[in-house]
Hints:
Elements: H1 2-17, E1 21-28, E2 31-32, E3 39-43, E4 47-54, E5 58-64, H2 67-74, H3 82-85, E6 89-90, E7 99-102, E8 108-114, E9 117-118, E10 125-126, E11 130-137, E12 139-142, E13 147-150, E14 157-167, E15 173-187
Parallel strand pairs: 3-15, 6-8, 7-12
Antiparallel strand pairs: 1-2, 1-4, 4-11, 5-8, 5-14, 8-9, 10-11, 12-13, 14-15
Amino acid sequence: MKKISLAFLFCLLGVITFAQSLKVVIKQDGKVIQPVNDVYDLKKSAFQFEITASNIEGFLVGATTNKDIYAAAMGLYNADVPWFQNTGMAEELYNKDKEMFLMDSAPSYWYYTDAKDHRFDKTPKGNLKQWTGTRTVARFYDVMVAQPISLQDLDGRVYLLMYEPVYNDEYDMIGKKNLFQAALRFKD
């Protein structure tokens, strides 16, 4: 019985040691924005995602103004959701333009490999196993029409889902793990 208990303890410690987590905090004007039912009320000015990850190198980010795409993506995996049909598109290194892609047809890919290869502002810290990065958003970029969208011109909400895809041996997406979801509501 003692051997079984020790084996169970070591297995549990192994799971805890390699557990994946993604913590996302949204800040504006240096203050943490608290959500109500996953809705974040923001002013029409720059804001930041502060991300802390453990055992996650990268993740996909679906961002849209289309509530139906977001609603379909939130539930169980559905291969018909456009974000799940296409691979992720990596945004610019070091987030030079301080923008975030809006795309109905494919997700973005945010990742941290090291201080010289990432999709966050210039000051991420950590290593592949545990890292922290900030991503400032001063505008959105609508990939479908190849146009930037100023936060001042944005009406309504931006829906976003950060998720980890699950692939089979042929690299077909067969599932997903939701990591963070939000509706960003912009007000004057």
